[in-house]
């Protein structure tokens, strides 16, 4: 595949191959279960599902690229790599890092957009919907800015991997990374905490409320890996780039895979059983209707629109049908 192909020898190289494969499979399983849940509950895929599927495809490409990096010398110390294989692998590795920036931007952008799209159907509250849509626009703009940064940071473009080009130059790549990565962490936190006031205000058994909040709060794990990624890059010695970039690459591939996986969990309830009609509404016995004095809400068992405008997580796909039938 590459000339030359670098053998897998170091623990870092092994980690860079194994971890992307494991987390790529984890994300694939989560999306597969999400689709199965839709099928079991007799609901067609909606836009948030299709965006999540697109996110998975991009994430798998990103995982594949990270897993291929060790075969170009990633995970080896720069001095050992050059002494044994020359500078050719470094050129190939540098080209791959540029592609990684683009794929990473898409891999973290798309699942967040999918989450926010789902939010707007679960929490049918005007102010919340506006907040989610604004957050979605900012997420998309950050993704575009990150991609443009990867494409335009060095002029000419080939100067990214060939710094012998006369007249070539690059901007402050570390500063650019710090800015985009920091904004990404902030957006992770925004997406994480956006629904919390509405979840906390629900009148339901405290055990169920805690489970619901913990399910949504699982995204905090992704914030941790985002922060670890920033710390690893900021403190990295670029004189040994091929070795020290291994850890940031691992953090980078874990983050979007976890976002995808955790984002699918709230919609998997149909997999636990229940009787769903051909229209996708839940007909089984269950807890009493949940109401809330403070925020608009709807039964977590029913799929019809209430005057207060709150939709259950796993019944949002019947929103359109039920709304039209109630008119």
Automatic annotation (TrEMBL):
It is a multi-pass membrane protein. It is found in: Membrane. Residues 33-272 form the Rhodopsin domain. Pfam families: Fung_rhodopsin (PF20684). Its main location: membrane. InterPro entries: Rhodopsin_dom_fungi, SAT4-like. The chain crosses the membrane at residues 12-37, 49-68, 102-130, 137-159, 179-198, 210-230, 250-272. Keywords: Membrane, Transmembrane, Transmembrane helix. GO terms for cellular component: membrane. PANTHER family: INTEGRAL MEMBRANE PROTEIN-RELATED, PTH11-LIKE INTEGRAL MEMBRANE PROTEIN (AFU_ORTHOLOGUE AFUA_5G11245). Belongs to the SAT4 family. This is Rhodopsin domain-containing protein. It comes from Pestalotiopsis fici (strain W106-1 / CGMCC3.15140).
């Amino acid at each position: 595949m590459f000339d030359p192909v670098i053998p897998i020898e170091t623990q870092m190289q092994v980690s860079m191959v194994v971890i992307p494969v494991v987390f790529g499979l984890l994300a694939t399983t989560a999306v597969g279960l999400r689709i199965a849940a839709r099928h079991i509950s007799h609901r067609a895929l909606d836009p948030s599902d299709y965006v999540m599927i697109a996110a998975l495809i991009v994430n798998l490409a990103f995982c594949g690229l990270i897993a291929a990096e060790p075969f170009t010398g990633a995970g080896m110390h720069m001095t050992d790599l050059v002494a044994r294989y020359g500078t050719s692998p470094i050129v190939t590795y540098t080209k791959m890092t540029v592609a990684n920036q683009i794929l990473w931007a898409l891999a973290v952008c798309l699942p967040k957009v999918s989450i926010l799209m789902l939010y707007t159907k679960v929490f049918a509250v005007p102010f919340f919907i506006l907040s989610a849509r604004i957050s979605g626009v900012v997420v998309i703009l950050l993704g575009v800015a990150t991609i443009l940064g990867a494409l335009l940071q060095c002029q000419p473009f080939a100067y990214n991997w060939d710094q012998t080009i006369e007249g070539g130059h690059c901007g402050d790549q570390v500063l650019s990374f710090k800015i985009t990565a920091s904004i990404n962490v902030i957006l992770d936190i925004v997406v994480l905490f956006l629904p919390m006031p509405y979840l906390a205000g629900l009148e339901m058994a405290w055990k169920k409320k805690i489970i619901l909040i913990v399910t949504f709060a699982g995204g905090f794990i992704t914030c941790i890996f985002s922060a670890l990624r920033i710390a690893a890059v900021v403190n990295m010695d670029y004189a040994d780039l091929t070795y020290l970039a291994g850890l940031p690459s691992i953090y980078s591939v874990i983050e979007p895979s976890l976002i995808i996986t955790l984002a699918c969990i709230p919609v998997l309830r149909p997999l636990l059983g229940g009787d769903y009609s051909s229209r996708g509404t839940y007909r089984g016995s269950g807890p009493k209707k949940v109401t809330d004095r403070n925020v608009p809400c709807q039964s977590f068992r029913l799929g019809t629109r209430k005057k207060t405008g709150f939709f259950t997580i796993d019944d949002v796909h019947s929103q359109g049908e039920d709304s039209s039938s109630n008119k």
